């Protein structure tokens, strides 16, 4: 009996060591990346003898980088809207209903998330050529949306599974048809899940390199532009671009998490 507190204390120390090791593993490279963006030299490495904001000023002064950033954001927003619409519709169709072919439809809905990125990109490239879709923004939005639909389906279905059926039945008893019941009861209940899935899809699309590379035209997305810049070697400019993108995505993610948590409390 006396050994149990010692064993419990030892397990807590062990778990704490694993946790902080993981934190260091994740955040130390990010911190180093941010620091290299302030280095007053074109070469990456330590020591940093002097500091400068030149690379960050250059990012916001470079029209090509700003245009590419806006292009990537536009693709992410459009693909997210499409994936949210399709994914929510599929989730509502599949959750709580039993019909022939449901398992097949669910499997096909989540399949794009299971296919390796490079294989998916090659398949989309071949299919786009067969359909006569030219490489460019439309092809990238299409590929990103298809890839993001499974995540919307899973998140929305998980939220739908907790919806009290008594609310829908009460609305039906009061004369509401299925469409009105969905708009006034189901959809407001799904808003936190839809918002969370939207942010996740937005970040996935913004960060997607493989599909953007295979289906892109002459105007690159931000990940493709960074890859092109890497061919001439690492530089603080690349670190500055990556740091700006990291901060913006972190701000959006933190805001979405807090907003979603507040909405869950209100519901």
Automatic annotation (TrEMBL):
Signal sequence bounds: none
UniProt keyword RNA-binding present: no
Gene3D superfamilies: MetI-like (1.10.3720.10)
Subcellular location: Cell membrane
Keywords annotated in UniProt: Cell membrane, Membrane, Transmembrane, Transmembrane helix, Transport
Membrane topology field: Multi-pass membrane protein
Any one GO BP annotation for this protein: transmembrane transport
Membrane-crossing residue ranges in chain numbering: 12-38, 69-92, 104-127, 139-160, 181-206, 238-256
Occurrences of domain ABC transmembrane type-1 (ranges): 69-256
UniProt key word Nuclease: no
GO cellular component: plasma membrane
Top-rank taxon, per record: Bacteria
UniProt family annotation: Belongs to the binding-protein-dependent transport system permease family. CysTW subfamily.
PANTHER family according to UniProt: PUTRESCINE TRANSPORT SYSTEM PERMEASE PROTEIN POTI
Name of the featured protein: ABC transporter permease
